[in-house]
Specification:
The protein is α+β, with helices and mostly antiparallel strands and 343 residues long. The chain has twelve helices and nine strands. A hairpin with an 8-residue loop joins strand 1 and strand 2. Keywords: Transferase.
């Protein structure tokens, strides 16, 4: 049986675009992007222009996962804001067209950095890119959610309480073996959730450098990508996600900064990045940052456990990489416990 997460019915896509996308003209070619574990993503090429199509994967999916409709909505709402996003064209929720929901957006001819070391770039570029990443993050958390029509994009209540509960359930639904550190982390996180502080903002949910597109020839951000986990929640989850990534080992797998001389590379320390973010948002500082960092390690462990389960079930976008990612679940759980201990 063909794994339809790897292919597209070109005739069906072509017919749909001819009927629904003004200015579209074939013939059409499609190429699957190698990156992206969750929602399969394809480059659509016509003689006149290029588009990108993102679709839900086939098969049995966890409840609320792979929400391409939410991705489409949030990016559409952010058009024209200080948070750069790709232009959205079409959302198709009719499964009879391709077998699962999908949306079509502009293709952006920019550059993407696989990890924060930005191999091959000079120090000035690294410094500027990370500062732009910081700026966009602060702007994201200052979006007026009422003005852009996203006040109902996430439920009310304590964001971290909701998220710990959600990802604990999703982890259990995807569990393939007992990992004691993950069991302990879920229990301790539930007991350590801080009280509400009044901050309720748009959050990306997976904010990191490889989910951003930058202009060629400059360090301006063209778009923030991959909004599947976005919601209305607490901004420190996004900030801590950046710091979490940096604590991973460098290289293709960890894509972090652990053990590197950041100053020699033109990269900020965790404390410098957090301080600059707080300055941009007018915040005095952040207490108990260890909880937020621990939460991010926990959530990432839950995400990659889901990727592993889909890989074992034959539904992952890249099954081999899914299995490799799954090996990191115990490490993320251990990092989460360590962050809680540091406070």
């Amino acid at each position: 049986m063909t794994n339809t997460s790897q292919t597209l019915d070109l005739a069906a896509v072509d017919a749909y675009l001819r009927d629904n996308l003004p200015g579209y003209e074939g013939p059409l070619e499609a190429t699957k992007f190698a990156v992206g574990q969750s929602n399969p993503t394809f480059l659509l090429t016509t003689p006149a222009r290029k588009y990108v199509l993102r679709r839900k994967p086939p098969g049995v999916l966890l409840k609320s996962a792979h929400a391409v409709d939410r991705e489409f909505r949030v990016q559409k709402a952010l058009e024209g804001s200080k948070v750069p996003v790709a232009r959205m064209h079409l959302l198709c929720e009719d499964d009879s067209v391709l077998g699962s929901a999908f949306y079509v957006m502009d293709f952006l001819d920019g550059r993407n950095f696989a990890d924060p070391t930005m191999q091959g770039e000079d120090n000035a570029t690294r410094t500027s890119v990370i500062d732009e990443m910081n700026r966009v993050l602060a702007e994201l958390h200052m979006v007026d959610i009422d003005a852009v029509g996203l006040s109902d994009y996430g439920p009310p209540g304590n964001y971290f309480e909701r998220q710990v509960g959600r990802w604990s359930k999703q982890y259990r639904a995807s569990e393939t073996e007992t990992i004691p550190a993950m069991d302990e982390l879920m229990r301790r996180l539930a007991d350590a959730i801080p009280p509400e502080d009044g901050q309720r903002t748009l959050v990306h949910g997976d904010y990191r450098i490889d989910n951003m597109m930058f202009a060629r020839g400059s360090t301006d951000c063209l778009a923030v990508l991959d909004w599947e986990l976005s919601t209305i929640g607490h901004p420190y989850a996004d900030l801590a996600a950046v710091i979490m990534q940096w604590q991973m080992p460098p290289g293709n797998e960890g894509r972090g900064l652990a053990g590197l001389d950041r100053a020699a590379l033109g990269l900020p320390s965790d404390e410098e990045f957090i301080a600059r973010y707080c300055e941009r948002r007018g915040l005095p500082g952040i207490d108990n940052f260890g909880f937020y960092l621990s939460f991010c390690f926990f959530r990432m462990a839950g995400i990659i456990q889901g990727v592993l389960k889909r890989g074992l079930d034959g539904n992952a976008s890249n099954p081999e990489r899914a299995r490799k990612l799954g090996e990191f679940v115990p490490q993320f759980a251990a990092h989460g416990l360590a962050a809680l201990d540091r406070g």
